[in-house]
Task: inverse folding
C-alpha cells in the first residue's frame, strides 16, 4: 500500500486542506494526516479539538485516511511511521520558496524521504486558517465557502462565543409559536447554571426576528442602502408601493400573497431582500454572545 503524509496545524481544517487531501488520494492509497504541535505557537483550538474536528471532517474517506498528532520534526514523524513521501501544499511563491528550503534541509538528513510540493487549486489559493479566523471575528458572510459546517460552528463558539439556532419553515408552519416557546424557556433558564455545550455554562440568550429586520428595511431605515433597496422593489414590482420613500406594507402584502402573480413577485422580492437582511443579521451578531 502506497502511503503519504499530509501535515499541517489544522487550526482549523479548511477546504484548501481538503482539496490537497482529495487530490493526493487519487494517486496514493493511504494518507497519514499529521497534526503538528509547536509549543511556541498559540493555537485557537486545543490539540484534542483539532484531532476530533479533523477526524469528523475526514471520516468520509474511511480507512484511507489516518489522523495522528506529532511534535518535533516532520521528517522524524515520517521516519517513525515508515512513510518516505511527504506532500506539502503551496499557495503562492512565498509558500513554494519556504517549502523548497525545508525540502532541501530534509534531503540533507539522508533518510530517503522525499517531499513533493503540490500547487494549490487556484480557486482556493487565498484560503488560510488565519484568514478564516479573521473572517469569523468580523462575521463575514462567505466563511461557509471556506470551511465545512462543523468547523464553522466550532469557530462561532470559540471566536465569537456564539451558538446559533435557526428556526425556519414555510408560511403558517409555526415559526413564531416555536420561537415564542423557546424564548420563554430561555428567559426562565437564563439565570440557571447548566452545561449548554460549545463552552457555554452561563449562557446569554438573544433573539433576532427576521420580520423585524424586514420592517426596518422597508418602513423605518433612513440609511441610503435601504432607501435604494426600497426603490428597487418599487421599480420591479409596483411604483405605487413607495409612499414618502417608504414601502406601503398593505399594498406589498397584497402583491406578495393576493395578486395573481404572487409567486413570481415573492421570488423577486426575496432576491432583492436577501443581501440587506443577511447584512443586518451579521451586524447584529457582531455585538452578541451566547445562544442566539
Result:
Amino acid at each position: 500500500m502506497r502511503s503519504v503524509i499530509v501535515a499541517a496545524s489544522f487550526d482549523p481544517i479548511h477546504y484548501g486542506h481538503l482539496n490537497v487531501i482529495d487530490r493526493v488520494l487519487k494517486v496514493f492509497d493511504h494518507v497519514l494526516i499529521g497534526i503538528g504541535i509547536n509549543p511556541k505557537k498559540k493555537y485557537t483550538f486545543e490539540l484534542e479539538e483539532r484531532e476530533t474536528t479533523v477526524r469528523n471532517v475526514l471520516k468520509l474517506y474511511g480507512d484511507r485516511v489516518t489522523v495522528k498528532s506529532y511534535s518535533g520534526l516532520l521528517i522524524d514523524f515520517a521516519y517513525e511511521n515508515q512513510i518516505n513521501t511527504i506532500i506539502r501544499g503551496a499557495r503562492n511563491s512565498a509558500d513554494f520558496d519556504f517549502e523548497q528550503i525545508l525540502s532541501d534541509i530534509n534531503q540533507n538528513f539522508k533518510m530517503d524521504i522525499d517531499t513533493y510540493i503540490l500547487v494549490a487549486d487556484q480557486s482556493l489559493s487565498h484560503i488560510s486558517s488565519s484568514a478564516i479566523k479573521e473572517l469569523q471575528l468580523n462575521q463575514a458572510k462567505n466563511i461557509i465557502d471556506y470551511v465545512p459546517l462543523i468547523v464553522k460552528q466550532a469557530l462561532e463558539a470559540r471566536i465569537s462565543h456564539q451558538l446559533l439556532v435557526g428556526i425556519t419553515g414555510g408560511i403558517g408552519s409555526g415559526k413564531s409559536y416555536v420561537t415564542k416557546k423557546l424564548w420563554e424557556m430561555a428567559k426562565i433558564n437564563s439565570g440557571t447554571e447548566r452545561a449548554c455545550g460549545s463552552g457555554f455554562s452561563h449562557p446569554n440568550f438573544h433573539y433576532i426576528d427576521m420580520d423585524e429586520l424586514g420592517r426596518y428595511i422597508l418602513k423605518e431605515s433612513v440609511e441610503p442602502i435601504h432607501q435604494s433597496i426600497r426603490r428597487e422593489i418599487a421599480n420591479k414590482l409596483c411604483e405605487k408601493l413607495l409612499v414618502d420613500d417608504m414601502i406601503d406594507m398593505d399594498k406589498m402584502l397584497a402583491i406578495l400573497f393576493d395578486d395573481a402573480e404572487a409567486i413570481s413577485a415573492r421570488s423577486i422580492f426575496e432576491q432583492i431582500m436577501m443581501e440587506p437582511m443577511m447584512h443586518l443579521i451579521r451586524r447584529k451578531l457582531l455585538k452578541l454572545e451566547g445562544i442566539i
